[in-house]
């Protein structure tokens, strides 16, 4: 019997071809969809890079069932605090599926971030003043403006337990309606 060298299976390490994804809502630690990030980390398809903030101000609002949405309206709102992950192509595909990219729920586009005020991240060349171009999931353009109007121009800088109070998991929402149906109903209903 020979002694072979153990090799690490490709699924347990992050390859150099990763996408940096800024998460601001339910994918963050402590929230309901973080279980997907945990699965991706376990399989080697994601790694946590740290806490970051958007360089520019953006509106972060809640939609139906307290689902968080980042609106692509730079210069409006707050610098949004979130978590950064390096994600493999396979992991990115799973995130895109969760976020409904092909169904018009969210769009994945670039955003510029910098290390968060309280906790820095571990990007290799990091300094407090440096910024990084990464990707984030924004509300789809088809309903973004209506969502902003429905929130009366109010937004917040972080999706916290307070903002998440009343969040309803996808499996617990009415199943006879699509996600876009829920959004249409929400934006056409009177504000709280």
UniProtKB/TrEMBL annotation:
A Pfam family the protein falls into: GGACT
Domain of life where this protein originates: Eukaryota
Keyword Acyltransferase on entry: yes
InterPro entries on file: AIG2-like_dom, GGACT, GGCT-like, GGCT-like_sf
Molecular functions (GO terms): acyltransferase activity
Active site (record annotation): 99
Keyword line: Acyltransferase, Transferase
SUPFAM superfamilies for this protein: Gamma-glutamyl cyclotransferase-like
Every Gamma-glutamylcyclotransferase AIG2-like domain range: 21-134
Role noted for this protein: Putative gamma-glutamylcyclotransferase.
Family classification: Belongs to the gamma-glutamylcyclotransferase family.
Name this polypeptide is given: Gamma-glutamylcyclotransferase family protein
Organism, as annotated: Eruca vesicaria subsp. sativa (Garden rocket)
């Amino acid at each position: 019997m020979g002694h072979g060298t153990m090799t690490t299976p490709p699924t347990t390490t992050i390859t150099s071809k990763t996408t940096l994804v800024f998460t601001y809502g339910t994918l963050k630690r402590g929230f309901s969809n973080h279980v997907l990030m945990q699965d991706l980390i376990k399989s080697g398809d994601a790694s946590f890079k740290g806490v970051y903030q958007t360089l520019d101000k953006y509106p972060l609002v809640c939609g139906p069932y307290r689902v968080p949405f980042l609106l692509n309206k730079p210069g409006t709102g707050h610098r949004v605090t979130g978590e950064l992950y390096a994600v493999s192509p396979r992991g990115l595909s799973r995130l895109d599926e969760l976020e409904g990219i092909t169904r018009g729920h969210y769009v994945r586009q670039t955003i510029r971030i910098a290390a968060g005020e309280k906790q820095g991240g571990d990007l290799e060349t990091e300094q407090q003043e440096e910024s990084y171009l990464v990707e984030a999931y924004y509300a789809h353009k088809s309903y973004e403006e209506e969502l902003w109007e429905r929130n009366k121009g109010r937004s917040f800088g972080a999706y916290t337990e307070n903002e998440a109070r009343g969040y309803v998991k996808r499996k617990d929402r009415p199943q006879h309606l699509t996600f876009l149906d829920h959004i249409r109903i929400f934006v056409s209903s009177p504000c709280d």
